[in-house]
């Protein structure tokens, strides 16, 4: 039996002619291979196109299988990437920890070396060798204008410097000058004078030298 597959709005159908009465017939492709009766001559017939239907079903199944496989592959890849990212993060954290431990070890070793070097330092003003420079190094801290709580302010600075290893030596009150600004100079003004309080601290030069050697200042 000759037949033709045609595409319609609701899906494919099969067009054929009844062997008994030559009437043109049309059935859904899904009915191919099924028994039917010609509506004109009542002859029993089998809707043609079974092979085509089978072929399309196989094709559809293959397509769906490929789609499922692609989906599974994608999911597997996503999972793998997630695992890789987790592993990379863990490795980074491990390396950070190693680096931190190394830094702590290096700092401890440095401290140890510095302590040993300082143990060997002998500071003796009487025997001081002046050809190697003054026995003290000095540092000045400017106080600016003193507030009413000047004693607290002084104590705070002196104690902070003491913790850094500096001994309070003395204070100086100086008169400093600042050149007149543009406007002041325009009206014939001279430089402005103001009082500065300077705190002088000192520490043995040998210790400062050893600390400089170990990068501690
Ligand atoms: Zn017929």
Topology:
Blueprint: E1 3-8, E2 11-17, E3 24-28, E4 35-37, E5 44-46, H1 50-119, E6 136-144, H2 150-163, E7 167-178, H3 182-186, E8 192-204, H4 205-213
Antiparallel strand pairs: 1-2, 2-3, 4-5, 6-8, 7-8
The chain binds zinc ion (ZN).
Zinc ion (ZN) binds next to loops.
Q: Based on CA inertia axes, which overall geometry fits? A: elongated
- First and last CA, distance: 105 Å
Strand content: 25-35%
Biggest sheet architecture = 3 strands, antiparallel
Mean pLDDT: 89
Low-pLDDT regions: none
Describe this structure as you would to a colleague.
There is one protein chain. This protein is an alpha+beta fold and 217 residues long. Among the domains are: 3-48, no CATH class; 130-213. It is 45% helix and 27% strand. The chain contains four helices and eight strands, in the order βββββαβαβαβα. Strands 1-2-3 form a three-stranded antiparallel sheet, with no helix packed on it. Strands 6-8-7 form a three-stranded antiparallel sheet. A hairpin with a 6-residue loop joins strand 4 and strand 5. The longest helix has 70 residues, at 50-119. It is elongated and about 135 Å long.
